[in-house]
Amino acid sequence: MESDLLDVTFLSILVSGSATLIASAIAIPLGCFLGMRKFRGKEIVRTVTYTLYGFPPVVAGLVLYILLSSSGPLGSLQLLFTPAAMVLAQTLLVMPIVVGLTMSAVSTTSRDYTETAFVLGADGWRTARTVIHEARVGIISAVMIGFGRALAEVGAVILVGGNIQWHTRVLTTAIVLETREGDFGYGLALGAILLAIGMVFFYLMKRYQDKGMLA
Amino acid sequence: MSAIKAEGVSKSFGKRVVLEDINLEVGGGDLFAIIGPSGAGKTTLLRILCGLQPPDSGSVAVLGERLSYGKGANLTLRRRMSFIAQKPIAFRETVRENVAYPLSARGIEGGKEVVDRALEQVRLLGLAGNPGATLSGGEMQRMAFARATVYGPEVLILDEFTAHLDPQNIKLLEDALVSYQKEKGATIVLVTHNLFQAKRLAKTTAFMLDGAVVERGETSRIFNSPTDERTGAYVRGEMVY
Ligand SMILES: Nc1ncnc2c1ncn2[C@@H]1O[C@H](COP(=O)(O)OP(=O)(O)OP(=O)(O)O)[C@@H](O)[C@H]1O
Ligand SMILES: [Mg+2]
For chain A, which terminus, N or C, has the lower number of CB atoms within 10 Å? Predict the structure, then answer.
């Protein structure tokens, strides 16, 4: 049981961590771009993004399940019930959050810093770099919140992962199983581990963030 | 030759007309003060002069080049100018990095001595390693001055660069400005509420009221024998607004 626990914990971190990394790699540049540009329909993009924050994981899981199932359009990839499918599902859930929060972090810092950079002779690229640098505290928050959502999420991973022992079982899906089997104590212990991972992660990110706050 | 030339500049925000048909010339090497009550449109005019904001109509030329107000527009020209905003801000970097910013933005490496000298002139060398965001109000304005002058701009535009400062800080920055101009022969446009400051520093003064330049001329004449009644009322402190 103990090695099982380690496996489950490790897979949770691996799946949610990879999803957050992949989502951030796409969403941070996208959010910066959207936050800095003025364009028609920006408000619509913003509203849609914010709406997606609350997108039910189980619905995302269902849609992905249909796409990945053997008769689905992506069935040939044979990803259903693999960790890769779980990463994919969580990436989709995390992305809007990181895009939206990065976008607002960048657009709120944007004006004053853009103007200061402008009058000090910065070109477009340098200005963009400066604005992103100034918004980094907010961008770090975006990643933290994104990871939190991925780690806590159960609806999507249970559908596309299947909660298979040794293979696709993570902390949240293990809790579902323990609850069904009536082992509440073990379920709560798993919950405590989940919280502990979150806390360690948030603590590390917060320290990094505080350093960025001033200098 | 005029260093700055604004022709027929108008600007409205919504229905509010903030600048109406401004024509203004600032001679090369002049120290030009713009005075006028709050809301007269001084900041708006400066922002248009330094390329931050396009006018609704009219045009501005600086050092012979017409401003076009696009993103990345007039980059080469902009790098010969500088602007200190009414409320300057520091980047989230050290004071030294803030002052070095214009140099690195121009791809100038090193420059440590230049930065040191700029910091020394505004008495900030001791705080060089501190985060810019922790500076006090007066220190922030001194930092902004060092940052705006470190690369030797030929045109320097200042919006209330000593507002809310104590007499010592005002003196320090005024001295720094005067010696900067002596050294570089730069053209300086200075918006100020402090009439004594205009008298002390400016060669030419313009009085703005309700989005228009009412009168401009040699500073001593503006203060001693203004031709417009409203200018007289303002410089004598009789204008209530
Ligand atoms: N972006 C804006 N949107 C709407 N109104 C604006 C904007 N910027 C300035 N104004 C208005 O334009 C008028 C002139 O503003 P401006 O900042 O140029 O005045 P000022 O002469 O610099 O005043 P102060 O001496 O108080 O700094 C003010 O009434 C202000 O409210
Ligand atoms: Mg102003």
Answer: N
